Amino acid sequence: MSVLAAIGVLALLIVVHELGHFAAARLQNIRVNRFSIGFGPVLLKYQGSQTEYAIRAFPLGGFVGFPDDEPDSEIPPDDPDLLRNRPLLDRAIVISAGVIANLIFAYFLLTAQIATVGLPDFNYQPGVAIADVVAESASAARDAGIEAGDIILSIDSQKLAASENALPQLMEKIQQSPNRPLNIEVQRGEKLLTLQVTPQLGEDGQGKIGVILSPNGELFRDRQNPIAALGKGADEFQRLSVLTFQGFAHLIRNFSETAEQVAGPVKIVEIGASLARSDAGSLFQFGALISINLAIINILPLPALDGGQLAFLLVEGLRGKPLPDRLQDSIMQTGFVLLLGLGVFLIVRDTANLEVIQKLFQ
């Protein structure tokens, strides 16, 4: 069920994206003859009064089809309701509407989560928790008498406040103090202890004491009333959008090092299924994050993506006329083949890396 839930979220985001294109066209009375989820052979279809609705075999996306693209269409080529006969602005609205729909949907997903199950948050308490002491014979923490469950309240008279900065502050102090005794104040149950620990020199030249650290506090869900959720949802949408843009920028700047982190549909479903098993409420945030990613990817100026179509419109606006149809078709077909090949590669790679597949070959 968790896998189906993750697949359902991914399919819903694709439907939302294509509905954006479809609605923008129909609201402007532009002719639309196909609305498809996926590519390849048709599995299910329904013929409406103007549009054929279909589900296809390869769920790597979807498309909205226009009579402009069909040479045997019975509609006169000078019909004013054909997409290609509309002004640049009308066409730009249709092309960009999928991206806009994904961004709007991401915002409402976050707002719905905040108003219903709440956003996961952390209530920080003073200090840093010792989650575990590593099982090594030579451990600075073990020699100092540090135990799992202890709370380090201060180090060398520096208080560790109730903040997300407490853990990195403690780590930095330990890493910068190899072979130098440090006095720490520890809370163990109801007792306050003062211990002395001497970080060992690690292979990286930094100090270590042999513990697993975690923030001190507890997770909770921040749920708001519907009115407050609108503002909180906007804040969370902005945070996720900034993080996503930063992630793409880091990927582009360090592509050779980060290319392996690019996830395809299989990996995305695996992550979503894991979230659904542990905390179904997180599927709201998961869906919002994927929706923002889908919007950013589609707006990139690459062939076969919405950004590539907008790039063609920009060239048309600058030239005063569109590029030759044959050139546009060649560019789009090449881009489609490359993107389809990338999608298939990611599916095969991520499938091979699934835990259940790995166990089969052990």
Report mean pLDDT, rounded to a whole number: 83
Strand content: 15-25%
CA radius of gyration: 27 Å
The main sheet comes to: 6 strands, antiparallel
Helix share bin: 40-55%
The secondary structure category is alpha+beta
Number of domains as seen in the coordinates: 2
Overall 3D form: elongated
Output the helix-strand order.
HEEHEHEEHEEEEEHHHHHHH
Distance between the termini: 27 Å
Number of helices: 11
Q: How do the helices and strands line up, and which of them pair or pack?
A:
Blueprint: H1 2-27, E1 34-47, E2 52-65, H2 88-115, E3 119-133, H3 140-144, E4 151-155, E5 158-159, H4 166-175, E6 182-188, E7 191-197, E8 200-201, E9 207-208, E10 211-222, H5 226-253, H6 255-258, H7 265-278, H8 283-299, H9 306-319, H10 325-352, H11 355-360
Antiparallel strand pairs: 1-2, 3-4, 3-10, 4-5, 4-6, 6-7, 8-9
